[in-house]
Predict the structure.
Amino acid sequence: MIYSIGVIFLCFIALCTKANKKTLLFITFLFLTGIAILFEPQRGLDLYTHYRVLDVMRQIGYADSIIRFRYLMGNLPVYSVLFYLISLLQYDKLLLIITYFIVYGCMFGVLSMCVADHGWSIKGWKYGYAIIMLITNAYSVTGIRYSLAFSVVFLFLYIDIYRREHRLLSFIMYVLMCLLHDGMILVVAFRLLLFIPKNRFTTKLKFLIVFWQVWLNVIGEILKAIPLAYFASAADKLLLYSTQESADTWVSGIGMETLGMLRIAVLILIVIYCVMYPDNKKDDYKRMLYFLILFCIGGISSAALIDRYTSITFTYAFPFVLTMNKECNRSQDSEKLLVRVETIPMIVLIIAYFGCLVAFQYRYFI
């Protein structure tokens, strides 16, 4: 329970004290470093396997590691290079420390940009900080590659779609993250759909995403027909995540279904908000959110897949959670955090979500 108590304490500091942004971030990353050092993964967890991989790579070198782990790394050069470089540092727990810094750093980066874009005060930033700490699941971050890849993609999606800046750099980062974890190919595919001109016909077409499982085998065959081994591997992963076997391996017994349903409930509230309060500046960013939500709804029967994609959609929707509070924390005149009545159901669900994390997952966490 160390982690959950620490998160509650950090949220208290953010919301109830005058601690500034730099101090809060310093304490947060110091806390996360301690968690990474203390956490000893159980056999069967992804992090346990990652630590064993680092040990082997350190002993046999990069070239032999590619041969030894060709099923895992053969088509993912960013994965193999990253793990090999960390293995040279001679301390396996640096893998989790670095991952925490990048994942949370990207989240706080989007938070700072969002606050600056809307002209909110430090109160708005602290409100967003508390939301991040409650919704970012440090347990699942120990899976490393998926959380690491999407956090970077999330940061550049905000820069690319919302701010409309550094588009070339953003697409380079998308490609690199696809070569860290091939699950990112779906997110990048949705990003490419935004280039299709918006009209009445294409607006309605997006609802076909709901029926993606009907065409699952066809999608797999199309990917495998591309003459690059990477796409065949991505197809295998998509098919695997859609099976009951993957659900039994990664989901059952630790409350993932409950967490997934809570994420979907929050996302539905966000969609209702977007419909009620349209914002043309965020139109493409909102369309991307709809793509992700429709995909999650369409695959709701695939527990392992939906656990992963509702999690990243939850993260992607974070700026909408902030803007639901609108201008309440724009002024510097009062030190009190102001919350709109309309956001109370959202806050209640987020607190319930964190409670479920504590109840279901931190039995396996420190």
Residues 194 and 287 are 8 Å apart (CA to CA). The chain is about 70% helix and 0% strand. The chain has one domain: 2-38+93-361.
